[in-house]
Amino acid sequence: MSADVTSPPSQLNRTAILVVLALGTFILGLSEFSMMPMLPLISETFGSTPSQTGYAISAYAIGVVIGAPILMLTTANMRKRKALLIFLSLMCISNGLSALATSLEQLVIFRFLSGLPHGAYFGAAILLASDIAPQGKRASFMSKVFMGLTIATIVGVPIVTLVGQNLSWRYCLAGAAVLAFIAFIFVYKVVPNIDNAKPSNLLNEFGVLKNKLVWSILGIVIIGFGGVFCIYTYIADTILDVTKTAPYTISIAMVMFGIGCTLGNYILGKAADKSAIKTTGFALICTIVFAFAYVSASHNIWMLYAVIFFIGCSVGLATLIQSLLMDVSPDGHAMIGALVQCAFNVANAIGPWVGGMAIAQGAAPNETGYVAAILFIGGFFMWLLSYIQLNKKQQVAQTC
Asked: Where would I find the Major facilitator superfamily (MFS) profile domain in this sequence (predicted)?
């Protein structure tokens, strides 16, 4: 029997709903991040070069950017359970097709399709978590949904990497398809079929684009989060070329990053319930410090582990940004969800690109920490603009 109810869920049901929603984000994290360590295996299968195989990752990111706004807007007034079921169906089918790809061209196409529901699922799941959250708990509820992705970086990616190395990369993508099918069943059974907290229309959704505060907050993600991806992309090169430790230490570093993501997501989510804007500013200052520290810490593997852990903690800013945007824009939450996902994928492109440019100009891999610090400073500048605008807005509201 499905959870076909219209009344607010109980506290027990809230916990179950959050776990089920997090299962979906776990699958998305698995589907996205597991492709990176599997690239050599895919290249071997299709006889392609690493750069050619990398198109599969780019295709996924393009799918996210295109799919997020289209699917979020077309399902904006659909009950969240129904929308989530549609997105999980797409995740199941596209990952299954990816596992069956007979050529690199097919894989690239299927990875593009896999990316389409990524941002839409995240957006719908986080909005549902916001809808069912008790007063004053919205940010922490949203962070618990995001927790699935962070756990995927700790547990899921290392496991599927081992599976891919010992069996085949196809089993990894097939496993993601099976998990999506299981999540579909759980969503149908556990998630209540409640009406949306607030109806939406296209005018309200597109009206978000006129809000200058929305763009400055998104700028925190586009510029600042580029710093996270700048460091993350070149961790392996830093360890092999600068730290000069055994290759297995790369896996440990990735796990440390994942643990940092999970813990940071939880702690920052709790802090954001009191003040999302102040918590965001404090976290950005910390990331600037650790980005600079990354350069010198890379000469000692234990120091490097610690710094990577704290850089990972900054990923918890994701739900804070979402919460901030929902605060400053009472309408157009579907568009907000889409814009956040697009912003993160733009950051995912900017970070590795500028880091790669620095390396191409002769910088050592660990010196991407300097590049990341500059990006974090840019993100802090956007936060400062947002903070000033938000204070002015609150002062005007108090005088009216």
From this structure: 17-390
Instruction: Record the pTM.
Output: 0.76
Identify which of 182, 112, 122, 114 has the alpha carbon closest to the alpha carbon of residue 148. 122
Distance CA 173, CA 160 (A): 9
**Separation of alpha carbons 66 and 338, rounded Å:** 9
By CB atoms closer than 10 A (0-12, 13-18, 19+), residue 368 is buried
- Whether 254 contacts 235, CB under 8 Å: yes
**Six token digits for residue 107:** 């894989």
User: Chunked in runs of 10, what are the mean pLDDT values of the chain (400 residues)?
Assistant: 56 84 92 76 83 78 86 84 95 96 94 92 86 77 82 81 83 94 95 72 66 86 88 83 85 85 82 80 93 95 94 84 76 73 80 84 91 95 90 71
Q: Are 149 and 28 in contact (CB under 8 A)?
A: yes
Distances from the Cα of 267 to the Cα of 19, 270, 316, angstroms? 18, 5, 8
Quote the CA–CA distance of 112 and 98 in Å, as a whole number: 10
- Cα–Cα distance list, 370 to 75, 113, 359 (Å): 42, 35, 12
Residue type, 275: S
CB 313 within 8 A of CB 264: yes
Asked if residue 340 lies in contact with residue 123, where contact means CB atoms within 8 angstroms, the answer is yes
**Looking up tokens 């991407």, which residue turns up?**
368
- Residue 290: burial class (beta carbons within 10 Å; 0-12, 13-18, 19+): buried
pLDDT at 106 (0 to 100): 95
Burial of 49 (0-12, 13-18, 19+ CB in 10 A): exposed
Q: Can you tell me the distance from the alpha carbon of 184 to that of 20, in angstroms, rounded to the nearest whole number? A: 9
d(CA 271, CA 311): 18
What pLDDT does residue 201 have? 60
pLDDT at 294: 96
